[in-house]
Write a structure and sequence with these properties.
There is one protein chain. Helices cover about 35% and strands about 15% of the residues. By secondary structure, it is of the alpha/beta class. A hairpin with an 8-residue loop joins strand 1 and strand 2. Helix 3 packs across helix 4. The protein is elongated and about 55 Å long.
Length: about 220
């Protein structure tokens, strides 16, 4: 079973505007690794759910990293590049469409997060984070101490950084999907249920990237 740590006060103990509070709280010394974990792609009708795990350097300019949804695509790309050059340890993982269908989107998201943490450990040459700061309500099924944080992207720079990596990675995958299935417009909406996407499904039927258990797709299977 995976441990969680949260003294009840801790979730509300952060100082407003300080997005490195939790990282400092758990870091006993420079050797203590604190990772942020987030996912992108729970809501779309097509494509995988992608997660990322990021360990920021203790001396980084953490204030640059904000919720990916509040950044422009150009800003996300710039910060994605920065995270791969500033000494951060980065891992990404995904759960595919068939896995989403077989286990539901929540469990698939947690699986993608687990894979992202494993990839982050590999990128760090086997060094495991001491604590995980996880966006959302649910811990990841791993034997690492964790603190789930609702709206974690606004409370932890590490989670915000993970949200950027997950979003950029998934957007790139959906841009590749657009080359294979241009009739659906994946490059424009990344698989989200826009009006244009729904019309394309109604006209062409689902493609192999569509989540056949999701409303908006299952009607056309």
């Amino acid at each position: 079973m995976y441990p969680c740590i949260p003294p009840p006060f801790l979730r509300t103990a952060a100082i407003p505007g300080d997005s490195f509070f939790f990282e400092r709280w758990f870091r006993a010394d420079e050797e203590t690794l604190i990772a942020g974990v987030d996912e992108a792609g729970r809501g779309p009708l097509a494509g995988p759910v992608v997660a990322a795990c990021v360990i920021l350097p203790s001396n980084c300019a953490y204030h640059h990293f904000r919720d990916s949804k509040k950044l422009t695509p150009r800003q996300r790309e710039r910060l994605f590049t920065l995270l791969h050059s500033n000494g951060s340890i980065v891992g990404a993982g995904l759960a595919g469409v068939r896995e989403i269908e077989s286990m539901n989107i929540l469990q698939a998201s947690l699986l993608a997060m687990q894979r992202a943490v494993t990839a982050c450990i590999a990128a760090g040459h086997g060094r495991r984070p001491r604590y995980l700061l996880v966006d959302g309500r649910f811990p990841i099924p791993m034997s690492i101490s964790q603190l789930p944080l609702i709206k974690g992207e606004s409370k932890s720079a590490s989670i915000a950084a993970a949200s950027i990596v997950a979003k950029v990675t998934r957007d790139r995958l959906m841009a590749e999907a657009h080359q294979r299935y241009p009739q659906y417009g994946f490059a424009q909406h990344q698989g989200y249920p826009t009006g244009a996407h729904r019309q394309a499904i109604a006209k062409h039927g689902p493609c192999p990237l569509h989540r056949r258990t999701f409303r908006g797709v299952v009607e056309f299977v």
